[in-house]
Amino acid sequence: MNDPGQLFYNDDPVPVYNGGACQPFAFFSKAGGEHPYLDPAVIQNLLNQKPPAINARPVQTALLSMLTMYKKQSAKSDLMCISETGSGKTYAFLLPAIQTALKRIEKNKGKASKSPSVLIFCHSQPLAELIYANLTALVKNTAVKTCLVIGKTEFIKSTEFDIGVCCAGRFRNHFEGSKRYVQIDVTKLDLLIIDEVDESMKCADDFMLYFEIRQKTSCPAYFFSATLDGSFSLGDIFRDEDCFCYQHGELNALPPTVIPVFWECDRSMLPEAYLDDDGTVHAIPPTQNNTLLKCNPSDMIFFILKLQWDNRAATKFIIFTKKTVIADFLANKLALLGIKARSIHAKKSAEARRRCFEDFKAGVYKVIVATNQLTRGIDVDVDVVINYDIPTSRTAWIHRSGRVGRNGKKGAAITLVDTKDPDYQTKAVLREIVGGLPPDKKLPTFLAEYLNL
Ligand SMILES: Nc1ncnc2c1ncn2[C@@H]1O[C@H](COP(=O)(O)OP(=O)(O)OP(=O)(O)O)[C@@H](O)[C@H]1O
């Protein structure tokens, strides 16, 4: 977290306020003094967060520096911002978004704008809901009007808002407009923000929408992600002739706060953990020096949870799996074994997801079983991530595992590996995952043998 990262303007490294005597952005609140960029109400809202945001994270310092030290250039230029999972990118783009909207409101002398000043796009509804919750908390007691434009909600009736948080599919209806859908005018946009850019650009329809928006406006666009693996095209959407880039941490790697762990499982083994007729849990605790012996993956998860709880090592867990049906199966199996768990995936409503997160925060459930839809951007306080299966790409594994080790806190990411899995693709992804680990990371023997390393 002490590493300030590096800001570039047209490939040249440029300094940011990162320490020494001159650090107006290291703190959001300077006792007795006005912040050089942020509105006092927004600062108060940052301080009211739980826990309060008092110090700016490096990515936030860099962006605020860019907007003030290089005001003329940043008024026109795009930004590509790559910073590790959990490093604070959400506030890093929300703060400029809010200030941009406030500037428009001031220019309009408080009169409502007929079209948005800032649009923030992200690839999934749960992420949009989370960003929107952060946004509404930060604009409290300001004149900024916000709007959530995502599927499975009512169509918006008015375009008189300043900042919209959107998913491309629903936004398309309002972009084109019709008798049924009010049309959002993007020609007056002041700032376009695309979060999880590498994921968003992989979908052809989303890509086309961003392309069309960029054709209609000359405003700057900011792109954010923790990964950028080259498996997608930025096309003309990122205007790289005059641009800023920021990077914090190693590209496409886990932050050092995440400890990756690999455990061997065997899908063909019969269940060992079961509940008998009188409700007693029978489990053969397969441990040896605190390491689990091989068993089937759902039992493995039960034993991992027990081991961690018995040793008071961790309290809250998120388990990832590729399939909705497996997420439901695992949550049910854990519940049968007396562990309160909830599954959360695309087939659940926004309201069910919101309740699940609230209950999880309150400690009603200690375990969430999620699908890939929750892989990116989701910020819940967990100690351990368990990868029940190997995801479809190394970047997905980084994002899944990056749900721990956030905001400077340490956490473990356990990946279950079935060495009998015949799927060539899974093995190839695992090889990429292992290849991207720090060179001094010691691999368990079973994994090194399985991958012929
Ligand atoms: N300045 C700050 N002070 C205190 N907490 C902060 C600060 N900035 C961010 N946080 C907290 O750190 C956590 C991680 O931030 P955030 O979700 O923005 O990370 P991210 O970089 O977007 O991660 P990901 O790539 O996984 O989406 C959040 O809980 C957020 O509230």
UniProtKB/TrEMBL annotation:
<dbReference type="Pfam" id="PF00270">
    <property type="entry name" value="DEAD"/>
</dbReference>
<feature type="domain" description="Helicase ATP-binding">
    <location>
        <begin position="70"/>
        <end position="229"/>
    </location>
</feature>
<keyword id="KW-0547">Nucleotide-binding</keyword>
<comment type="function">
    <text>RNA helicase.</text>
</comment>
<protein>
    <recommendedName>
        <fullName>ATP-dependent RNA helicase</fullName>
        <ecNumber>3.6.4.13</ecNumber>
    </recommendedName>
</protein>
<dbReference type="InterPro" id="IPR014001">
    <property type="entry name" value="Helicase_ATP-bd"/>
</dbReference>
<comment type="similarity">
    <text>Belongs to the DEAD box helicase family.</text>
</comment>
<keyword id="KW-0694">RNA-binding</keyword>
<dbReference type="InterPro" id="IPR027417">
    <property type="entry name" value="P-loop_NTPase"/>
</dbReference>
<dbReference type="InterPro" id="IPR001650">
    <property type="entry name" value="Helicase_C-like"/>
</dbReference>
<dbReference type="GO" id="GO:0005524">
    <property type="term" value="F:ATP binding"/>
</dbReference>
<dbReference type="InterPro" id="IPR011545">
    <property type="entry name" value="DEAD/DEAH_box_helicase_dom"/>
</dbReference>
<dbReference type="GO" id="GO:0003723">
    <property type="term" value="F:RNA binding"/>
</dbReference>
<dbReference type="Pfam" id="PF00271">
    <property type="entry name" value="Helicase_C"/>
</dbReference>
<keyword id="KW-0067">ATP-binding</keyword>
<feature type="domain" description="Helicase C-terminal">
    <location>
        <begin position="306"/>
        <end position="453"/>
    </location>
</feature>
<keyword id="KW-0378">Hydrolase</keyword>
<dbReference type="GO" id="GO:0003724">
    <property type="term" value="F:RNA helicase activity"/>
</dbReference>
<dbReference type="GO" id="GO:0016787">
    <property type="term" value="F:hydrolase activity"/>
</dbReference>
<keyword id="KW-0347">Helicase</keyword>
